[in-house]
């Protein structure tokens, strides 16, 4: 395979050019209804196409939630394929939110589905779960490096249940979440301007100064908007790593559809607030 530009390099350039904003593509039934769309393939396709057409020229990253497409079976996956292709063709990076995690050949198959350039679902990056042990992600790490893609590993998530696992303390005195961050720092060692292996760290978690978030890689930060966090919270949560934060906003932007102008205005407003907060 010919050399490709690593995801971290492409993400840094996109964040610098467009602002550090990731917009979710989350076509759940309630949101489709609020747009006046039916909860069917036609509604799914109209929703996804509208989001991409409205925002592809102004956001750094789209994050489609695979589950909302998969619930329609093969026809829904076909819409997801087109959504990914259209977004990437328009110049927006695509982070597939599928949270895959398994072992051996099964993990390799998951990786191939989303990180192999020959796959119709090939995305710039993929969310993965390390809770079968970080080493279980090796097939995804290797394929991401080969294809120039990235990974976002669940580390300190915003859901309250996550603390049960992520804040658990190992025999060496380090929490599971901190262990995942340390693994990612190793993956990104020496990368410039930023590594391709990121962590998912909730923007709603408050003071995280006890964790070393300086992993030389991106930090996907869900929780802005509907979950209660604001752009102004980011410096206090992420400290000196705030420059590598990719805040994710889904409902806060999507609720303004299907009006294209309203979607664009909402996205621009969040991007401006985030820039101001993080000094981008």
From TrEMBL:
Its EC number is 4.1.1.23. Signal peptide: none annotated. Keywords: Decarboxylase, Lyase, Pyrimidine biosynthesis. It comes from the Bacteria. Pfam families: OMPdecase (PF00215). The active site is at 99 (proton donor). GO terms for molecular function: orotidine-5'-phosphate decarboxylase activity. It catalyses: orotidine 5'-phosphate + H(+) = UMP + CO2. Pathway: Pyrimidine metabolism; UMP biosynthesis via de novo pathway; UMP from orotate: step 2/2. SMART domains: OMPdecase. GO terms for biological process: 'de novo' pyrimidine nucleobase biosynthetic process; 'de novo' UMP biosynthetic process. It is an enzyme of class 4 (lyase). InterPro entries: Aldolase_TIM, OMPdecase_AS, OMPdecase_type-2, OMPdeCOase_dom, RibuloseP-bd_barrel. The keyword Cell membrane does not apply. PANTHER family: OROTIDINE 5'-PHOSPHATE DECARBOXYLASE. Belongs to the OMP decarboxylase family. Type 2 subfamily. HAMAP family: OMPdecase_type2. This is Orotidine 5'-phosphate decarboxylase. It comes from Streptomyces lavendulae subsp. lavendulae.
């Amino acid at each position: 395979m010919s050399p490709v530009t690593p995801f971290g390099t492409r993400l840094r350039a996109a964040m610098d050019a467009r602002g550090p904003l990731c917009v979710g593509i989350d076509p759940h039934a309630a949101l489709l209804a609020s747009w006046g769309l039916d909860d069917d393939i036609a509604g799914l396709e109209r929703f996804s196409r509208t989001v991409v057409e409205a925002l592809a020229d102004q956001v750094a990253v789209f994050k489609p939630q695979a589950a909302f497409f998969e619930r329609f079976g093969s026809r829904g996956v076909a819409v997801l394929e087109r959504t990914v292709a259209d977004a990437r063709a328009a110049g927006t990076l695509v982070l597939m939110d599928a949270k895959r995690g398994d072992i051996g050949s099964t993990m390799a198959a998951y990786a191939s589905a989303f990180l192999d350039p020959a796959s119709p679902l090939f995305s710039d990056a993929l969310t993965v779960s390390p809770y079968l042990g970080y080493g279980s992600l090796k097939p995804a790490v290797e394929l991401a490096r080969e294809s120039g893609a990235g990974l976002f590993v669940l580390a300190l998530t915003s859901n309250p249940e996550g603390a049960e696992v992520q804040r658990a303390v190992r025999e060496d005195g380090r929490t599971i979440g901190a262990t995942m961050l340390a693994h990612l720092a190793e993956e990104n060692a020496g990368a410039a301007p930023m590594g391709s292996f990121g962590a998912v760290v909730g923007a709603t978690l408050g003071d995280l100064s006890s964790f070393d978030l300086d992993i030389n890689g991106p930090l996907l930060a869900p929780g802005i908007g509907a979950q209660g966090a604001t752009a102004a919270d980011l410096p206090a949560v992420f400290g000196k790593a705030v420059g590598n934060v990719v805040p994710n906003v889904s409902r806060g932007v999507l609720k303004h559809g299907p009006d294209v102008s309203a979607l664009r205005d909402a996205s621009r407003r969040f991007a401006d607030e985030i820039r101001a907060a993080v000094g981008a």
